Fold non-specific serine/threonine protein kinase.
Amino acid sequence: MPEIEQAAENTALFGKYELGRVLGCGAFAKVYYARNVQTGQSVAVKIINKKKLAGTGLAGNVKREISIMSRLHHPNIVRLHEVLATKTKIFFIMDFVRGGELFAKISKGRFSEDLSRRYFQQLISAVGYCHSHGVFHRDLKPENLLLDENGDLKVSDFGLSAVRDQIRPDGLLHTLCGTPAYVAPEILTKKGYDGTKVDVWSCGVVLFVLAAGYLPFNDSNLMVMYKKIYKGEFRCPRWMSPELRRFLAKLLDTNPETRITVDGMTRDPWFKKGYKKTKFHEGYGSGSKGGDGDERLVNLNAFDIISFSSGLDLSGLFGQFGGGERLMTREAPEKVLEAAEEGAATAGMAVRWKKECGVELEGLNGNFGIGIKVYRLTAELVVVEVRKRGGDCVAFRNVWDRKLKPLLLGGGATTPYGSDQKEQQCESQVAGD
C-alpha cells in the first residue's frame, strides 16, 4: 500500500492532487474532480488557461475572483482552499460539492414551496454575508448554485463579482454583466446600479424558478424579454400561495429604491417560516489569523501567495517580482529578522529597522543594499522577501548567497512550491487542457 500511495504522489498535480473526471468546461477553464493524495479529501480543481485568457481583458476578473473567494468563509459558499500556478495555468483548489448544480435538479420539475423556501433561505444567508463583506455576486442563477451531500445549497462562481472598490463616485456600479433572464431592470438602463439591489432581484428570479419550474421573464426574442423585465411583467402560477406571490412582488419590484432588502426579507411572513439564522464562526473554513499586530502582516491575499512561486512565471498576469527572491520558513518573523541582523553583522553591513516588519541592510562602503521584509502566510508559515536595493549585483549575490541565505535556510526555510522539475511535471499533466 505505501508503494501505491507513493506512485500516486509522483503523478499527482504538484505532488498533492490526483486529477479525475472533468466536472465542467468553459471558454478559458476546466473543472476537474480531484483527490488530495496526502489526506484523501475530495476537491474540485478549476484550471484556467492563461494563454486562452490573454488578450480577452478578463485577467482582472480572475484576480478579483481569487481575492473575493479568499475572503469569504460561509457554510453556504463554496470555499477556496488554495491557489497554485505554473507558467501557463492557474489552479483554484475548491470544495467538491457532490450534489451538482441546482439547475440539474430544477430541470426535472419544480420544487415544493417548503423546499424552495429552504434553498432560498440558505441563498439569502450567503448573499447577505457577501454584501456585509462588500462583495456583490452579480450572476446569481441555478447554474451557479450547488448542492452538497446533505442537500444544502452553496453559492459558486464569483467570476463576475464586484467589490466596493469598483463603486464610482456616484455610489453605483456601472459594468454591464449577468445572465439575461436574471438581470435587474436598472442594469438595462445603463445608468448605474446598486450591487445589493441587483443581487436581490436575481434571487427573486431564482425563487420564482424553484417554485414555478420556469422563468418569470422569458422570450426567444431578447429585446422582448428585456422589455418584460424593464416593465416587471410576470405572472405567478395558480399553485403558488398568496404569501409567496406577495413576497415575489417585493423581490421583483422594478424600482430598486422600494425593492425589499435582505434585512426586510427576514421579517417577511413567508420567508420567516421555519427560518433559522445560519450560525458559524467568522473564520469558518480558514486557518488561524494569528494574534495582535499589523493585519497586513498576518493576512496575505491570494495574489501574494501565487506570486511567491519561485520559477513559476506569473508576470504576464500578476506583475513581476524582479531583483529579489522569496523564501518560506516556520520561524517566527522576529527570529527571521534577528537572523538577518546577525548575518548583516558578519557581513559588515549597517542595519536600519523598518516599521513594517522588515530591515534595510547597507554595505558600509555604500556600494549596495538589501531590503528584507517578513510576512506571515499562515499561523505556521512565514514568507521572507529579499530585494537588492541598487548597487553592485556581484556584491549582493556574494553577501546574500554566501552569508544571509544560508543563515535563513538553517532555520528550515525553503523556496515555495518546490523545484522547476515539479513545475514541468505539472505542466505535462494538464498539457491537453
In short: The first helix runs from residue 2 to 11. The longest strand covers residues 382-391.
